[in-house]
Structures are given as C-alpha cells and as structure tokens.
C-alpha cells in the first residue's frame, strides 16, 4: 500500500502596517493563530516593521532562531498579505516622487486651481492643498465632444470647426479641433476599446478589427519637451488631456513617446479611470505618478529582506504568494500594486474584516464599522455587499478610482481637548504619536486618551511600560489629573459652574461621541437607511472604550466586537479576495432591447478581468463576476452604480434605489454612463468565516452569568449615569467561556483591546465575538434652570447636525447643477421667534439673511398657519438676497398641536433660471426689480398636503410678461428643486421632533437659547478688545458708489454700532443690496475676525446695532434691482469691515458672475481670484473669497452640457499686490462660443484696485474682453464694462481676467519675512485674532460618500 505523502504545514501571515502600530496575524492548521503587535517605526531595533513581524512569526512557527540581518526564507510561508500606509503617509506628508504633468494647452494651472473653493470658510489665511507635481508641460492638442445639435444635424456646425469627427469609446461623437502635424496608426478592439500600435513596439494587439488613422500629435515638440524633463532628472510623469476618458488616443501617443525617451513610470489618466472631469482625473493621475514610484521603492526594499526577493519559484505559483490590499478591498499581486490604489490599503482591510465577521446573513442586519485608532477614526457601512465610491478626497487630493466607502470622521484617541468660547471642543487637531497624549510623559496636551485614562477606563497595568524619555515607564496618571484640575478651574471660573474634573473629562468624551455620531447618521440616513436599524461593529485600539456610549447616542441596540477587533485590519487581509475592477464609458439609453449590447460589453470586460486574475495565480473555477451599470435619469447628474439584480432588470433596481435614497423618481429615460465588471478570485480562507455566526451562537450557546470570582481586579470608573466613580470588575476575555454573560459596569480586556461596559450594558461572550446589548435606557434629566457647558457643546453638535442633514437631503434630491454640484444652497433651523439657531453654511452670503426671511413670513402669517404648511419667498424685502435665491420655509409645530410653533426650518437654493431680462435674472443691464425674474413675496408652496405646482407655474410664467423679459425655460427643473427643498425641510422637521422626543421640548428650547447667548458672549469679548479705537473705512464700487463704515464699541458691555452713514444712495443699476445682505456680511466678518470656533446663530449680531440709512445702496427701495448686490456689493461690504479692523489686504472683491444663454440651455458660474495677504501669510491665488465658495465648472462637464469651448483656465502670475507678503493672483478664463448665443459678465474691481494694507501694494484690476469677429477677418479685442452683456457669435470669445489680492506690508520692510518674523515686526500694531490664526491644514485621510459633508464641515471649521 503506497505511503501517504503529508504536505508540510505552512503558515499564513497577514499584516497591517498602520501609522503607529504594525499588526501581524499568523494562522497555522497545526499551531493555531499567533498575534504580533509592534511599533511601525523603531529604527533602533529593526529597519522594517512588517519584515520584523514576519521574522518573529517564523520563529514562533518553526521554533528556530532567525537573525535579524539575514534574508528570510519564505518556504514555510503559504502566503503573505499586507496593507500599508506607505502611500497614505507619502500623500499626507507630501513625500512622494518628484513628477511632472503633461496637460492640454491652456490648462497648465487647472489642477492647481482645482474646484476653486477654499477648504476652510472662516479663515483669513487661506491655504489650499499643494499640488503633487513640480513642473507642467502643455501639449498642443484639443478634442471636444460634438454638440448634440451638430450630431443631429451636421449642417449646423460652423465651418470654422473643421478637424476630424471621430467616435469615442462609448460611441459618442467628438471633434479633433487642434490642427496637428503627424500621423499615427491606431487599432481598436470591439466597440472602440482604443489601443495604439507604435512600431517597432506593439503595446497591445488582441482581437483587432480594421485599422483607421487619425491625426496624431506633433511628436517632435512632445519629444523635445519630454527629453528636457528627463534631462532635468524627472523619471515619473502624468499625462492628462482633455476628454481622454472618451478619446484616449492622444494620451496613448504621448505615452509611447515617453516610453521611448525612457521614463520608468508613466501615469495615463484614461488608463487609470476613464471618467469625466479633467481636474479629478488629473489629480488622480498625478497622485499615481507621485505615489507609485514611492510604493515601488518600498516594495523593492521589502523584498530585499527575503530570499529570492519574493519571486515565486519558477513562476509556477508554488512559492509564497505575496499580495497587498488595495483601496477597493481586494488583494493584488505585490508586483501590480500601485500608489493610486494603495491610499486606503490598511483601512480597507478593516472594512473587509468587519464585513466578514460582523455581518450575519442569518438576520442580515446591516452594520456600521467604527474603527477608532490613535490618530484617526474611520466609519463605513456594510449591508451584504461592499459599497464603493469612485471619486473621493484624501489628504486634500481628489482621487478618481474605485475605493471602499471609508470616511475619516475624527482624529482618534489623540484628538486634542480644548475649551474655547464657552464650548468643549474635541479635535480636529491631534497630538499624534509625538508628543502624544499627556499620559505618554512627553509633554503632550490633554486628549481623548487622557480623558479615558483619568476616568478609569484604561487598565494601566495592561499597558507596556514604554513611556517617558527612557521609554520604560507606565502611563502617567498624575500629570493628567493635574491638567484636568487646572482646566476645570478655568471652566468653572469662566461660566460660574461647579463641575468636577471627572465631569469635565466625561463631558469631553460625550462631546467626542456626539461629534462622531453626526457623520455616522449621514452615512446611513443619506441612503435612506435608519441608523438605529444597524449594529455597530467596533475595532481599532480605542474603539472598545467608546462603542457602547456611541451606540446609545445613535439609538443602536447592539455592539459587536470580534476577538481580533484591535487587529481587524490585519485579519481582514485573510478574508479578502483577489479582484480586478474594469470599467468603460458607455453611451446608451437603457432598455430591454439594449441588454444584448450590454451583455457583449460585460463579456469583454470579464475576459479582461479574467486574464489579470489568472496572472495572479488564481484558478479559473474560483473566479466569479459582479456586473454593474452606472445609470442616471436623462437630464440629471445623479448617477447610481447598480449591481446586476437576480432578475436582470437594471431599470427596476435603479428606480428602487433612487426612490430609497432620494424619495422620488423621475418620468424620464434612463441612460447608461458606464459599464463595469468586477472579477473576483475567491480566496481559500474567505468562505470559512461563516462557519460560526454570532446569531447561531446567540441561539445555541447556554447563557451563563459570569462567576463572581472570574474578575482579576477592579478599577474605579466614572460613569455619567452614576455621577460618581464606581468600583467595576476587570475581566480577561481568555478567562471567559463562550456563553458567559457579563453585566456592566465592567471592563473586558485582552492583550490588545479594552472593552468598556456602561452600567446598562450586558455583554455575552461568543466563540469569536463579544455581543453587547446596549440597553437603551432613559436619559439623564437635564436641569433647565442652569446651562451645563457640556450639554451646551452637545446641543451645538445636535443642532448643526440637523441643518447638515437638511443640506445633504437637498443636495441629493435636487436636479440642477447650481445646487447639486456648485453647492449654491444653505439650510438652517430657527427658534419659534424665527431667530437663527444653526446654519450649515455653504455660501456665506446666505448666513443670517434667512433669519429675516423666516421672521417676515412668521409675522405675515401669524396665527394662520397649520401643520404641513410650507411657504416660499425670494423677495429682497422679505429677507431675500437676490431673486434667484429662493427660500422654502416650514413651521414645525409641537406634537399634537395645531397652534404652537416650536421651531422653523428653511432651505435656500439658487435657481439658475427664473426668467428675467432677455431670459437672465442676473442680466448686467437690469435696473428694476421686475427685470430680474419671478418675484415671490410670500405664497404657499404646500398646503393641505398639496404641492401648489399650478400657483408656482403662474408666478414663474409671469416673469415673461414684462418688456424684453422671458419666463423660465426649464420650469420642470425649478419645480424639481423646489420639491427637493421641501424634502430638506421635511428632514429638518422630523429631526427636530426626534430631538424633542429624546430630550423634551423644554430642554431643547433651553439650550437653543443658551447657544445663542454663547455666540453673543464670544462676539462681545472680541469687540471689547477693540474698544476705544478709531475704526472706520470706506471703499468704492467701480461706478463711484461709496460704502462708508464707522464702528463705535462700548468697552463696558462689548456692544457695537456699525454705522454705514455716508454710503451712496440707491443706484440705477443692479448693485443695490438688501439689508439682509449686509447682515450676512457682518456675521461672516465677525466669525472670521474672531478666528476660533463658535456657533453661527442670531447671537452673533445680538451685540450689534446696525445703522443703514434708508434709500441707500445698502437699503434700497422695494422696486430696486438687486441681483448684483448679492454678488458684488456684499464683497465690498466685507472689504470695508476688514479694512476698518485692519485685518488684511483686500481680496479680489467680486464674484465674477458669468452667464451664457442659448435656446433652453443656460450655463453660469462665479470665478475665483486673488486673496488678500495678511501679517503672517501671503495671499492665496485662484480661490473663492469671503462671501462665496461655489465651485467652478470642469471643462469636460461644461463642454458636454453646453455649446461652449473653454480655451484657457490659468493663473495670472504676478497680478497680486506687491508687499512683504504678496497678494494672491487672479485667473484668466477664456470661453469660445460654438454657436451664436447671449453672454453676460458681472464684475467689479475693474476700476478701483483691491487695496493693500500697511504699505502693501494693490492687487491688479480685473478686466473683461470680447474677442469679436472683424468684417475683414480676424478679431477685435474689445474691453468691456465691469458688468456687460453681448450677443456673441460662433467662434468669438469672452475672456475674463479676475483681480489679484492686495499685498501686506512694505516690500522694503527690514524685518520683511512671512511667518513669525512678520508677526514680530507688527507686534505693536493690534491685529485681530483671525489674522494671527495659523493656517488650517488638517485634511481627512479618507472622505468617501461623505466628501461633500466633510467639505461643508471643513468650511465651518
């Protein structure tokens, strides 16, 4: 009988190299599991933490000693899987490869300008994220989509648009516009999957159909440029050309030349992710060029530490397989690992880990993953399938590539605790690893970790003695105690409270949990899922200390903790699959008859994915496929990625998901935007996790109460529920048998994690989990006779959270570009008196002004409203700013009452077309209100459950009844956006009722009033610092209008009179600004001048007496035109206030509103400029400033939607004012009409330059030029008025030069350096706190589907 050959046991190793610790999990069939945790960086003991982890595992596995300085033998390793922060750290620290960018001519600065928005709204010292490349080369080529009318009727295309008409990869028509000089030969696969044949090297040749030829690129010039880059030492480049997502041939031609020059790394944007948006695709390509060489260097160095450099034996796949985790949650061969897909490598392992260990298909309860470590906290969601996003922002850089929907929401245990302006603040700053928390004995500040330590929620003896200078001491309790006692003394002295240090520490923990709950609610509810229906899966080193309290805040009933929760990212590597994600653009109306074509594309992408999967050693029978269609309603920009349903009906699945997420569906065709296939090679361990589910354990395991003698010790722990320290037992998890029940209060811990149980919590120990019943009990009764600063901080978060959820609902349900993409909207909640409680600002000009709109309606309809009523208004006399900004207002009634209004909610959104002069509500030539479109003083939008569409239609259509005026051309879009605004108000109303149900009406309204008082006190304190000074200023609009201001401050109570006496009379123009605009400007200015976090509500203006003489440009008559008062005059008011306080030099001082009208199509945007310099900073170039922060239209999006060509978007270098600190530069934006159309531009600072400050020079003026055709051929360059309109013909251009910002300080200043030296030079001059605040530079590691939410939060500081 033949002897059986026993296969030698091999170990499987999974590693997560995090920012602080490197976690290693080893799994062996004979020896079980083994855990190793070591510092990620410890050069005194080892050169590379993951390699050291492998060495220690093999010593455990083999029982043999392995020298640290010898290459490691991998013959006993079955596989090695790893997630790493190498790419993330390189991006966060800006330590990647020096790289260059090749981009279409005219767009050399496009990525630097980005979306033009500033990251932090209330910051004088604006600082946008730095670009990743260090040099730009422009490529003379140009492709643009053929305008839809030209496709339908080619005879409409103007003769000057010659060039070649070509077909893109999705079947759409494009025109090659740039005259080019040489020929390249191309081949294409089925359905134009374009590939370049560049003899003598064949790049790709498979399943080719007949060749065709197009004009190629001027190879001589491109080669010259590339050779120059190579000679300068560049070895990595990114190629980003306009519309290459549809037509990649030009990029491929440049790539071929670069390969022949010898560049080792070339990132081609269309290869990385073929999706629309030049800026997003471009930043992704530069990120890849910046990161991939750095990742490759790390991998090469890592491989050097192993025998054979990790190459598999003979290519047969019998050796150690080495894979790395990608951002999309899949594994790939380490030789194929790229920087672009490595950014969320470690966090992705955590998502896979909690998804496979905490989601039980038996009950299918969705799970929120809560990963709280020392330096960051991430959240994500799993409901049976991984949720991916395709455009995210990481470390301030926009990335276009499939990533798991991971969202960084806080700084983790290292979040710094501060008390400012009467509020408890947690983060966003972090103590990091150095100096770390105060208890680390390195002089660090108080942090969340210190609060947990002080409250007894950590077991000191379970921590290694690695702290202090000698790195041999335990955590320091005494310094934490001393710091909390000192902070408590300051807090009590400031507000007259009598808090104990423990109550203060617990208060910070509660604020931290409340702030983390806000984005978790967004993550679930923005998709139509109830937060309370989820389980909370906690992992990461600090997750177990917060999970139960966080779940209670969220209304979640259960917390699930896996046995490897503190190393779950590493464990997730073992559960992950190899996958290849392939997609291509596709243009097709979805219908059952189209499925045959779509199935053909699915099969082609499956073949492509299979080839890559097989190359990684996966057997074909283990490969499965997920097929997706990226679908949208025609006319909408909201796309949903739909997984092929079991019945194959994509349309049905799309409609169901659209209804769930957005609460409505459209009667419109459904278009296919992209076809996507995810080929998945199932891993051998990935299907084993379901062998023991927590649901089965709960049902099968006997429930046994923990024995009294099972605890190994006790801790004194402070719980808010008890109001004091209580004695709680400590349990080691390894001592508790499956089925054991542990009631709170208690601490459960093992070598790597600590789980805190509150008094109402009950935990059950299962085979692989700890399952905790949170036990949602009654809340602590709050005293409404005093203001608890802790609860004040919590309610500040809760009120703002409601306004934010309204904003997310509005953005997601709206259909217009203005609201959905440019984010030109604001949502707010108000008290029963109509005064502002919380405003989630996106556009500063909306700040505060909505209060007066609400109060106008409240007074007008007093005693006449009933539940369900919704009002609408836009009139300047009714609290409006200008007519396109339409405000929807809903009263919130007390439960069971038809009379008592307890709150108001409102949503204001910019409607791009409400009719007006020549169809433009913001026409430069308007002088009367009736010329500016639909005018709504007050009317019911909803009454008795009926949406008053007919009434609204009549109002909108009436706009066309006046001379030379037109009614709106896309009334359906107006109605859709109004319904979206109603939906936002419904969300706000529901959330307020929920808050009442949680705390009671009296408590909520008590803290509503207290929040206002808090803001008022902060403003009074600031104003007192400038009492007794002569604070006055004036500035001019380009027509000579004066804005004059004098500020008189009472030093006894901090009240101030802002007196605009001396301001010019109402103007025969549209520069008149309603009083609400000035109030919004003042709120913005005061918040920015103060320079620290504070609530934005009615309390800000409570200490202010505002004097605006009637019939002036700041208080015009009811009949006055006001459209540009909102955009231009508001900016000048801010300039005057900042000038009076000598805060900084003037910024560009206008919004540069630009509009184009053609038939029923409309395109409009505001354009960035230069920001003013200050005492410690240079002005930021190409940024939105002060009263606006809307986005600019991307060239590819704009040219797809409108018959325009964007010829150039660049920075006007040197246009900022000279000075010790220079002002920021303005921009050059150049449009070309493809058909005859109406064009209009509204601007300022074309005559009066933005002022410099304290010897700094003024910024350059802006200008508007019309490149008009001349009868003799050629063009006339005509300079236009600051605000002007023209009928522009096909081929003519409109050129906008925006102003630069003013400089600060004399160039000849002997102390003339920025930063601390500049500040020292001005120490005798009193500067506002906001002018001395440092740059804000905290960027989230990961912004998935909450990217817009995070942007809005950053805007709010």
Short key terms for the protein model shown above:
62 strands, single chain, 9-stranded mixed β-sheet
Describe the model.
The chain is an alpha+beta fold and 1357 residues long. Helix 10 (448-454) crosses helix 12 (501-525). Strand 25 (415-420) and strand 26 (423-430) form a beta hairpin. 28% of the residues lie in helices and 25% in strands. Residues 179-216, 313-318, 686-692, 1312-1323 and 1348-1357 have low confidence and may be disordered.
List the helices and strands and how they pair.
Layout: E1 11-17, E2 21-28, E3 32-39, H1 49-62, E4 77-84, H2 86-93, E5 100-104, H3 110-113, E6 135-139, E7 143-145, H4 148-152, E8 164-167, E9 173-176, E10 183-188, E11 194-198, E12 201-202, E13 209-215, H5 219-231, E14 236-240, H6 249-261, E15 265-268, H7 269-272, H8 278-304, E16 321-325, E17 331-333, H9 345-358, E18 367-372, E19 377-382, E20 388-389, E21 392-394, E22 397-399, E23 403-404, E24 407-410, E25 415-420, E26 423-430, H10 448-454, H11 477-495, H12 501-525, E27 535-539, H13 543-554, E28 558-562, H14 568-575, E29 578-589, H15 595-614, E30 623-633, E31 639-643, H16 650-662, E32 670-681, H17 694-700, E33 704-705, E34 713-719, E35 724-732, E36 740-743, E37 746-749, E38 754-757, E39 762-765, E40 769-773, H18 789-813, H19 817-820, E41 825-830, E42 836-840, H20 849-860, E43 870-873, E44 885-893, E45 901-910, E46 916-917, E47 939-943, E48 946-947, H21 949-958, E49 965-966, H22 971-999, H23 1001-1024, E50 1031-1036, E51 1042-1049, E52 1056-1059, H24 1075-1090, E53 1104-1107, H25 1123-1140, E54 1153-1158, E55 1161-1165, ...
Parallel strand pairs: 1-4, 4-16, 5-6, 5-14, 14-15, 18-27, 27-28, 33-36, 35-37, 52-53
Antiparallel strand pairs: 1-2, 2-3, 7-9, 8-9, 10-11, 10-13, 11-12, 16-17, 18-19, 19-24, 20-23, 21-22, 25-26, 28-40, 29-32, 30-31, 30-32, 34-35, 36-39, 37-38, 39-40, 41-42, 41-45, 43-44, 43-47, 44-45, 46-49, 47-48, 50-51, 51-52, 54-55, 54-58, 56-57, 57-62, 58-61, 59-60, 59-62
Helix pairs in contact: 2-8, 5-6, 9-14, 10-11, 10-12, 11-12, 12-13, 12-18, 18-22, 18-23, 22-23, 24-25
């Amino acid at each position: 009988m033949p002897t059986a050959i026993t296969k030698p046991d091999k170990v499987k190793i999974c590693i997560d190299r995090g920012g602080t610790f490197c976690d290693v999990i080893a799994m062996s069939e004979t020896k079980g599991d083994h855990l190793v945790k070591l510092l990620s960086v410890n050069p005194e003991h080892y050169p590379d933490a993951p390699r050291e982890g492998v060495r220690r595992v093999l010593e455990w596995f083999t029982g043999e000693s392995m020298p640290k300085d010898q290459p490691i033998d991998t013959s006993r390793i079955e596989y090695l899987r790893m997630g790493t922060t190498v790419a993330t750290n390189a991006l966060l620290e800006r330590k990647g490869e020096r790289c260059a960018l090749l981009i279409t001519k005219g767009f050399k600065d496009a990525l630097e300008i980005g979306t033009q928005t500033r990251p932090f709204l209330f910051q004088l010292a604006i600082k946008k994220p730095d670009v990743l490349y260090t040099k730009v080369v422009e490529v003379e080529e140009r492709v643009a989509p053929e305008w839809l009318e030209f496709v339908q009727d080619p005879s409409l295309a103007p003769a000057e648009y010659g060039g070649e008409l070509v077909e893109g990869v999705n079947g759409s028509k494009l025109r090659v516009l740039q005259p080019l000089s040489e020929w390249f030969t191309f081949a294409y696969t089925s359905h134009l999957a374009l590939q370049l044949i560049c003899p003598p090297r064949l790049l790709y040749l498979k399943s080719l159909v007949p060749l065709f030829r197009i004009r190629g690129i001027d190879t001589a010039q491109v080669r010259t440029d590339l050779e120059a880059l190579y000679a300068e030492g560049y070895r990595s480049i990114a190629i980003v050309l306009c519309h290459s997502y549809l037509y990649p041939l030009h990029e491929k031609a440049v790539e071929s030349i670069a390969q022949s020059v010898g560049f080792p790394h070339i990132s081609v944007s269309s290869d990385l992710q073929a999706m629309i948006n030049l800026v997003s695709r471009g930043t992704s390509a530069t990120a890849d060029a910046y990161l991939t060489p750095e990742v490759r260097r790390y991998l090469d160095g890592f491989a050097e530490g192993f025998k054979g450099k990790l190459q598999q034996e003979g290519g047969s796949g019998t050796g150690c397989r080495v894979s790395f985790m990608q951002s999309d949650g899949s594994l790939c061969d380490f030789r194929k690992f790229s920087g672009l897909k490595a950014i969320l490598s470690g966090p992705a392992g955590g998502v896979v880990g909690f998804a496979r260990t905490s989601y039980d298909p038996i009950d299918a309860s969705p799970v929120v993953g809560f990963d709280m470590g020392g330096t960051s906290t991430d959240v994500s969601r799993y409901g049976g399938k991984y949720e991916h996003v395709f455009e995210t922002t990481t470390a301030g850089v926009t990335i276009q590539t499939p990533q798991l929907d991971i969202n960084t929401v806080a700084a983790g245990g290292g979040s710094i605790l501060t008390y400012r302006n009467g509020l408890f603040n947690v983060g966003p700053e972090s103590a990091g690893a150095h100096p770390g928390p105060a208890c680390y004995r390195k002089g660090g500040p108080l942090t969340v970790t210190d609060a947990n330590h002080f409250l007894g929620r950590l077991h000191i003896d379970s921590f290694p003695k690695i702290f202090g200078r000698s790195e041999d001491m335990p955590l320091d309790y005494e310094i934490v105690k001393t710091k909390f006692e000192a902070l408590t003394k300051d807090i009590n002295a400031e507000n007259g409270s009598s808090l104990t240090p423990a109550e203060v520490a617990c208060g910070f923990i509660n604020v931290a949990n409340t702030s983390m709950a806000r984005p978790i609610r967004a993550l679930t509810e923005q998709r139509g899922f109830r937060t309370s229906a989820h389980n909370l899966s906690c992992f990461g080193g600090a997750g177990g200390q917060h999970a139960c309290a966080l779940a209670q805040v969220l209304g979640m009933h259960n917390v699930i903790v896996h046995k490897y929760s503190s190393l779950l990212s590493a464990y997730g590597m073992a559960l992950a699959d190899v996958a290849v994600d392939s997609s291509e653009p596709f243009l097709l109306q979805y219908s059952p008859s189209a499925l045959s074509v779509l199935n053909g594309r699915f099969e082609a992408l499956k073949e492509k994915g299979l080839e890559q999967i097989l190359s990684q050693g996966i057997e074909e029978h283990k490969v499965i496929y997920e097929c997706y269609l990226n679908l949208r309603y025609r006319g909408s920009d909201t796309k949903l990625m739909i997984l092929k349903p079991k019945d194959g009906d994509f349309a049905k699945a799309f409609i169901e998901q659209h209804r769930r997420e957005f609460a409505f569906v459209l009667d419109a065709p459904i278009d296919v935007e992209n076809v996507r296939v995810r080929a998945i090679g199932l891993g051998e361990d990935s299907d084993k996790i379901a062998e023991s589910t927590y649901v089965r354990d709960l049902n099968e395991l006997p429930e046994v109460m923990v024995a009294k003698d099972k605890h190994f010790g006790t801790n004194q722990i402070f719980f808010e529920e008890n109001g004091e320290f209580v004695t709680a037992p400590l349990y080691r998890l390894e001592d508790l048998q499956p089925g054991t029940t542990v009631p709170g209060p208690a601490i459960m811990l093992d070598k790597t994690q600590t789980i805190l149980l509150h008094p109402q919590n009950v935990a059950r120990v299962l085979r692989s989990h700890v399952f905790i019943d949170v036990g949602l009990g009654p809340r602590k009764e709050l005293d409404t006779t005093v203001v608890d600063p802790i609860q004040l901080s919590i309610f500040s978060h809760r009120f703002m959270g409601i306004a934010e959820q309204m904003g997310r609902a509005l953005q997601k349900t709206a259909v217009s570009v203005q609201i959905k993409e440019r984010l030109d909207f604001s949502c707010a909640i108000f008290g029963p008196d109509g005064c502002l409680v919380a405003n989630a600002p996106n556009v500063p000009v909306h700040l505060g002004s909505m209060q007066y709109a609400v109060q106008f309606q409240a007074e007008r309809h007093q005693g006449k409203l009933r539940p369900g009523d919704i009002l609408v208004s836009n009139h300047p006399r009714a609290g409006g700013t200008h007519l396109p900004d339409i405000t929807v207002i809903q009263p919130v009634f007390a439960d069971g009452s038809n009379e008592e209004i307890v709150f108001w909610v409102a949503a204001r959104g910019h409607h791009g077309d409400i009719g007006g002069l020549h169809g433009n509500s913001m026409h430069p030539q308007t002088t009367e209100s009736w010329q500016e479109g639909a005018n709504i003083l007050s009317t019911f939008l909803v009454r008795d459950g009926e949406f008053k569409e007919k009434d609204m239609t009549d109002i909108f259509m009436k706009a066309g009844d006046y001379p030379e005026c037109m009614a709106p051309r896309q009334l359906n879009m107006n109605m859709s956006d109004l319904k979206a605004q109603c939906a936002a108000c419904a969300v706000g109303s529901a959330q307020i009722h929920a808050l009442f149900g949680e705390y009671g009406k009296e408590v909520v309204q008590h803290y509503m009033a207290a929040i206002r008082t808090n803001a008022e006190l902060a403003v009074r304190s600031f104003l007192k610092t400038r009492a007794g000074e002569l604070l006055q200023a004036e500035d001019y609009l380009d027509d000579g209008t004066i804005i004059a201001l004098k500020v008189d401050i009472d030093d006894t109570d901090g009240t101030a009179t802002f007196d605009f006496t001396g301001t010019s009379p109402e103007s025969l123009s549209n520069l008149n600004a309603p009083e609400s605009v000035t109030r919004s400007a003042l709120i913005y200015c005061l918040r920015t001048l103060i320079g620290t976090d504070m609530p934005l509500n009615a309390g800000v203006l409570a200490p202010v007496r505002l004097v605006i003489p009637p019939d002036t440009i700041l208080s015009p008559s009811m009949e006055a035109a006001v459209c540009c008062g909102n955009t231009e005059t508001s900016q000048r008011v801010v300039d005057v206030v900042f000038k009076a306080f000598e805060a900084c030099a003037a910024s560009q001082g206008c919004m540069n509103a630009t509009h184009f009208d053609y038939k029923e199509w409309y395109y409009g945007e505001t354009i960035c400029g230069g920001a003013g310099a200050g005492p410690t900073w240079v002005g930021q170039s190409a940024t939105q400033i002060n009263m606006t922060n809307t986005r600019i239209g991307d060239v590819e999006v704009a040219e797809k939607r409108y018959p325009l060509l964007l010829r150039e978007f660049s920075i006007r270098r040197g246009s900022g004012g000279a000075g010790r600190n220079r002002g920021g530069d303005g921009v050059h934006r150049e449009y070309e009409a493809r058909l005859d159309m109406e064009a209009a531009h509204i601007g300022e600072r074309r005559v009066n330059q933005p002022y410099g400050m304290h010897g700094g020079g003024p910024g350059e003026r802006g200008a508007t030029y019309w490149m008009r055709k001349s009868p003799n051929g050629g063009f006339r360059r005509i300079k236009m008025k600051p605000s002007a309109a023209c009928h522009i013909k096909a081929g003519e251009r409109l050129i906008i030069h925006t102003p630069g910002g003013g400089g600060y300080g004399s160039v000849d200043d002997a102390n003339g350096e920025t930063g601390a030296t500049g500040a020292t030079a001005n120490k005798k001059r009193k500067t506002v706190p906001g002018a001395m605040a440092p740059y804000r530079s905290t960027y989230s590691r990961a912004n998935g589907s909450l990217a817009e939410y995070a942007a809005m939060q950053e805007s709010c500081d």
